[in-house]
């Protein structure tokens, strides 16, 4: 205890200001060993926390920060504001705390710099002894007479173990229940799927039932429709006869209109050919004018260049003549001065040697004067030649300008005329296309017009091919002529340049003063100045010639560029011409396709017209036969007609007529195969009589004409059209008919739709018998082709 007090006093002697920066809260006097230990402390405003600060357990009596038993890093406070106090907590795990050794320990707060800034009060680690409040007496489970003293913690631990065992058992039960639940859910899903499948099957059956009801309703409606068609058949046949008469009249009218359209088309084609030839001639003249104008423009540019060159040469020569005149004047003045000097010298000098020297000098001056006079005469001749050449060039240029103006005026007139002709041609083309369209629409049933149009198209193709070949030849000829013109222009330019060079070439005249050494006039400054001026003139002429050469070269390059431009334009025109050829080919193909379609339509219309005519002939024949047979049948007895009527009514009421589908006639104008007739108007005969199969054929009444056969082939087998099932061949009981009534068969005559593929309309027999007399005859409704062996 004294040691503790000594250590406490020693710690009080330290600087309390540093140890008070961290205050430890709720520090107990003793703690359990090997149990978790919580340490609560407060960071005051005098300390700034750092992530490397730590809290350690030190044995009392420590001297440095390294004497710690264990430590934990101090957690950095969140949202820390400097200058405020913060409460923090650290938990030391049980395996890090000291054992029960009877020593005193304390908490210390150590900064990252190793400074101790807070210390707690001392405490010990020791095991706690139970008190009277914590002890309980429990009876022994094995022997109830024995009491067991134990702590509350032990009892609680036993209860915790029992609760844990119950928890494990409950978890196992819950897993089993969860598995059962999943199995029940899977079974539920399968049952739901089976229920949905049953519902779908039920709905499918309902839909099928509805479809069957709809189909039965449709069959009933179709039956009513067949009855209605049977009622409308008679009116339809009458209307078809009237339509046939109207069609024949329209055919005659169309033939007359077609003849008039042929004449009109011939006139239009003739006018079209005249206009095309006129347009072709105008285009050829336009191309010739263009080529002529281009050639004239080329010649004009060349002549203008030559004129400029000659003008510059003329100006240079005039300048040279003026210079030479000035030089001659100076030389004459010099000569007069020399004469004066010579006379003065002769007057002053008297010696013979001086006279000879002066004579020699005088002779040289006279030779020089003669040379200058010859040069001036040559220059005057050159000047006259140049002036005459200039006059000729000016007159030729004026004539070329007049021709160019005339060509421009002719070009403008030609262009205006071409524009007018193009407008006229476009107008005529539009009219021709309109007339051709009208002619095609009106003459859609005449193959002769199509053949004529085909011939015209072939003729136009041939002409177009010939025009293309002619254009190619003209283009090649134009290229060849352009090359020749370029060669001639180059030769002419070279000749003119050589002549100009010869005219500009001046022969150099040697100075007499310099030829004789030691002469007194060789040192004359005036003669040297004249020579220098001549040299300057020659250099100027050379520079002028170089300038002219450069200008001519530039003009040649411009002409080359212009020729390239013309070649590009010509290539573009060729491309346009090829495109036009392609469009013409496409138009030809379209026209050929339209012609084929037109031919097929014309052929189809012709076949239909022929079939209608044949049908009309057959109908008229049948009508005549029916009229004859009706007249014969009108003389029969009334009682026979009455009995037949009653028997037919009974038969019709007992046995309905059934037809086998599909109907072989067109569906857009529905007409039935059979026509219901009044029994009182029917006549009878033997349907198996071969001799009377054509003459005594099936009959119709006068007011119910026949229906026309369809154009196309039937949609079923051509052997049998329709048949009913066979009935009983025995005679009903109680009915005895005479031999005359045994042949009371209903016979109809209809054109056979089955045989229409061979363009032969046969007569089919429809036999309606009240009952059969013999087993070889059947009481059924049959349609038998006329070529049948029956």
From TrEMBL:
Region of interest called Disordered, as start-end residue ranges on this chain: 492-520, 627-649, 685-705
Keyword Plastid part of the UniProt annotation: no
Domain Calcium binding and coiled-coil: 133-413
Keywords, sorted A to Z: Apoptosis, Coiled coil, Metal-binding, Repeat, Zinc, Zinc-finger
InterPro entries: CALCOCO1-like, SKICH, UBA_autophagy_assoc_protein
Coiled coil: 153-285
SKICH domain residues: 22-125
Pfam families according to UniProt: CALCOCO1, SKICH
Annotated Polar residues bias: 640-649
Key word Coiled coil present: yes
GO biological process: apoptotic process
GO molecular function term, any single one: zinc ion binding
Stored PANTHER family: SKICH DOMAIN-CONTAINING PROTEIN, TAX1-BINDING PROTEIN 1
The protein's role, per its UniProt record: May have anti-apoptotic activity.
Name this polypeptide is given: Tax1 (human T-cell leukemia virus type I) binding protein 1b
Source species of the chain: Neolamprologus brichardi
